[in-house]
Amino acid sequence: MMYFQVAAWSCSWEVNSAHYMYAGLQNGSLLVFDIRQTVRPLESLNGPSCNPIHTIQSLSHPSGVRTLLSASSVGVCQWNFDGAEGR
């Protein structure tokens, strides 16, 4: 449960589903939450760097794939969820 010891720098709701929320952490990690299950994050993902994620933007995608852009001082990262997992 190491992710609870790191400060969140940014957050965003999922534009395609009111159930999902994202948090960008000071250590460059991304947490994915589902408000229907609040015991712990659904996912804890390591970012491309250890720099804080200062901006998160959920994107609307016609295929239904959840796509997220995050930014740190290193640059922009695209995250894909629901079958197209990757960065």
Keywords:
single chain; 87 residues; mainly beta; four-stranded antiparallel sheet; three-stranded antiparallel sheet; globular
Write up this protein.
This protein has 87 residues and is mainly β. It has a 4-stranded antiparallel beta sheet with strand order 1-2-3-4, with no helix packed on it. Strands 5-6-7 form a 3-stranded antiparallel beta sheet, with no helix packed on it.
Write out the strand line-up for the largest beta sheet, numbering strands in chain order: 1-2-3-4
- Multimeric organization: single chain
Beta strand count: 7
Runs with pLDDT <50, length 5+? none
Brief overview:
By secondary structure, the chain is mainly β. The chain is 0% helix and 45% strand.
Question: Topology of this structure?
Answer:
Blueprint: E1 8-13, E2 20-25, E3 30-34, E4 43-45, E5 55-59, E6 66-72, E7 75-81
Antiparallel strand pairs: 1-2, 2-3, 3-4, 5-6, 6-7
